[in-house]
TrEMBL record:
This is MFS transporter. It is found in: Cell membrane. CDD domains: MFS_YfmO_like. Keywords: Cell membrane, Membrane, Transmembrane, Transmembrane helix, Transport. GO terms for cellular component: plasma membrane. SUPFAM superfamilies: MFS general substrate transporter. The chain crosses the membrane at residues 7-29, 41-61, 73-94, 100-127, 173-191, 217-239, 251-270, 282-301, 307-327, 347-367, 373-393. GO terms for molecular function: transmembrane transporter activity. It comes from Paenibacillus zeisoli. It is a multi-pass membrane protein.
Length: 413
């Protein structure tokens, strides 16, 4: 693993930049709406368009990475992301109002295309780089930590840059993408492909076979990844709205408060990635503990509406999600053969993007009910993830006794 520190540094920059490119906008969306004279719904589309495009294209990017190589997909994806950010950033120089809005929306569309072939391809590439499962889990823990650190940094950085110049967050993306691009080009060494890539028909047949054989636990992990992102972005949307409307916190101060539960998530991801090693039984029960923490904290919030109590519970919820993500990343990466790994993990990444997309709008509808109703509904969704882990994920404590096709997989009944 020590010999691949440069590779991991370069790859860890990708989720950091992708997260910043999207989440930095959240604290400045009201300012963008005022500057461009557009509605709240129109400005929310700057987030939604990015996510929808990524959801649709992630599986295609996964297949292309399996066929042509991970690095061959990541490099053009970073370039497209940078170009999309540049288009958004220069749009205010060429007009005002609704015309600028449509240019920015087009730039976000491009960013969504780039995002589909960036972070989702990093996960299978890390799996390709190492033969030792313990190295894989530690490395994926670092990648997930970088992703969550981006979430911690984004509300603070976005608010600070937006306070200086409202479109400055857009302009930072090309510079960050250029840094990551250079790191990937010069530091990442793609593992050599042992066999020629199969035809599309043969490949789809193999993927169908994988889903048929291992579908029970794979679909469970897909759902758990989506639920984790739904919980995270849903409660952050709620907290952001409450801080501004009830407690009159705006700008950098609001960003700092939003960063607190995300910092707990980041720390939990880092520690979990280092501790789980190649022990799949530990991964399952760590995931159970993480989701139980999240579920319990959300039920707790439903009982009390004191802001300090809410933030304390969200810290626990964030830590719980942070425990789960490195475990699910490793289980799905190590449970799939390299030939289909890019496509299967891309389906997992799509589910995470779906969770990101659904969290804020569903919570915005639930806010119109009572505080207790809203958080009981969210807690029940979290409880569903606990049940999925317990019933569908059944790892073998002795993988060396597995049949060859399941040596790195997870047992099903």
């Amino acid at each position: 693993m020590d010999s691949k520190k440069g590779d991991l540094l370069a790859l860890a920059s990708i989720p950091l930049i992708m997260t910043l490119g999207n989440s930095m906008l959240i604290p400045i969306l009201p300012e963008i709406a005022r500057k461009l004279k557009v509605s709240s719904f129109q400005v929310s589309m700057l987030i939604t368009v990015y996510a929808i495009v990524a959801i649709i294209l992630i599986p295609i990017a996964g297949y292309l990475s399996d066929k042509f190589g991970r690095k061959m997909v990541i490099i053009p994806s970073l370039i497209i992301t940078g170009l999309g950010g540049a288009l958004c950033g220069v749009a205010p120089w060429f007009g005002q109002g609704i015309s600028v809005y449509w240019i920015i929306l087009a730039g976000r569309f491009l960013q969504g295309i780039g995002a589909a072939g960036a972070f989702p391809i990093v996960i299978p590439l890390v799996g390709d780089m190492f033969e030792n499962e313990e190295d894989v889990s530690k490395s994926l823990g670092l990648i997930e930590t970088s992703n969550t650190f981006g979430k911690v940094l984004s509300p603070i950085l976005g608010a600070a840059l937006g306070a200086w110049l409202w479109y400055l967050p857009f302009l930072t993306i090309p510079a960050l993408c250029l840094i990551s691009l250079l790191l990937v080009i010069f530091l990442v060494k793609s593992p050599k492909r042992k066999e020629k890539a199969p035809s599309l028909r043969s490949f789809l047949k193999d993927v169908k076979g994988v889903l048929k054989e291992k579908g029970r636990w794979l679909y469970a992990i897909f759902a758990i990844g989506g639920i984790c992102m739904f919980l995270l972005f849903g409660v952050l949307f709620y907290l952001s709205e409450q801080l501004e409307t009830k407690h009159h916190l705006k700008g950098v101060m609001k960003g700092l408060v939003l960063a607190i539960p995300l910092a707990a998530l980041c720390l939990a991801s880092y520690i979990t990635g280092k501790k789980i090693g190649k022990n799949k039984v530990l991964m399952k029960w760590a995931s159970v503990i993480g989701m139980v923490l999240s579920t319990g904290s959300l039920f707790g919030i439903s009982m009390f509406n004191n802001v300090y109590f809410v933030i304390s519970c969200l810290i626990i919820c964030g830590a719980g999600v942070g425990i789960v993500l490195p475990c699910t990343d490793t289980l799905i990466t190590e449970g799939i053969e390299k030939e289909q790994r890019g496509t299967i993990t891309s389906l997992y990444s799509s589910m995470r993007f779906i969770g990101v997309s659904l969290g804020p709008p569903i919570v915005s509808l639930l806010i119109q009910t009572t505080h207790m109703t809203m958080f009981i509904v969210i807690a029940v969704v979290s409880l569903a993830a606990v049940i999925l882990i317990l019933l569908a994920i059944r790892p073998s404590a002795e993988p060396e006794d597995d049949p060859p096709l399941r040596r790195h997989a997870i047992h099903q009944p």
